[in-house]
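From the shared-data thread, chain only:
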Amino acid sequence: MSKLKLEPKFFACSQSIDLAEKIALSYGAKLGNVIISKYSDGEFQPALEESVRGRRIFVIGSTFPNSDNLMEMLLILDAAKRASARHITAVIPYFGWARQDRKDKPRVPIAAKLAAKMLETAGATRIITMDLHADQIQGFFEKPVDHLFASTIFMPYLKNLNLENLMIASPDMGGSKRAYAYSKHLKCDVVICYKQRLKANIISHMELIGNVEGKDVVLVDDMVDTAGTLVKAAELMMERGATSVRAVTTHGILSGEAIDRIENSKLTELIISDTIPLKGKSSKIKVVPCAPLFAGVMYNVQNNTSISDKFIF
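Structure, as tokens:
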């Protein structure tokens, strides 16, 4: 008797419902129903309102703080595991807590490793994510990780700008590898900003390594949080003679007064994906959708085919 291949089911964490609906629509499916019951003390319980027995399911949700977002993902994964789902793929467009990927001083946690272990313990048999803060975080998982690159969706946008004197820039030394990858594909030069911090989110000093005079600069980074680094880098480059400065960042965290900083900055525009819901509006912020990329990868995963064609570089 031939075995009927069951179609996958899609479920969303509440913080990423809009993105999950777009991914499901792009895939050609609908989201499954998740009901979340809440207690008066803040505890909550998600329930999958349809059978997942023997199915591959995709649970979609970015795990940006607060910690409830990660906890909701864990609880839905656990619910799916206990409901006998065959494969449970955690689709985490933005993998939160990833900035804590090492011990940079005594007596601190490695939160990225802890989050990886919790996701696996909860029931995830595969992870799909995009632009981890550090590539080596893939090694924190014992399960397969599909690490997508936002360059796949950003590159067509950058090419359509037709910037004659394009130059790629990294806002810090740690992002130089990403900047060189962009520059190699776009066939242009690279400059790097060297910065020193007083503490998290506070920059004490920044210098520019390279010449930007007469250039249309594009800063590339994996995330923008308070926007302090990008705004300061844009000011420095305009002072050094740049014609324009744009920024391309995958994850628009944009906490605190970040959106106001962007709006009042020297940046021509900030280009982000929609891995995190945008918290406000700015005429300078352009959102490039990532749903088609995730849907395409999820389709290939479901059909056991290669995802190599989903990468530009």
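The chain has two domains: 9-148+292-310, 151-288.
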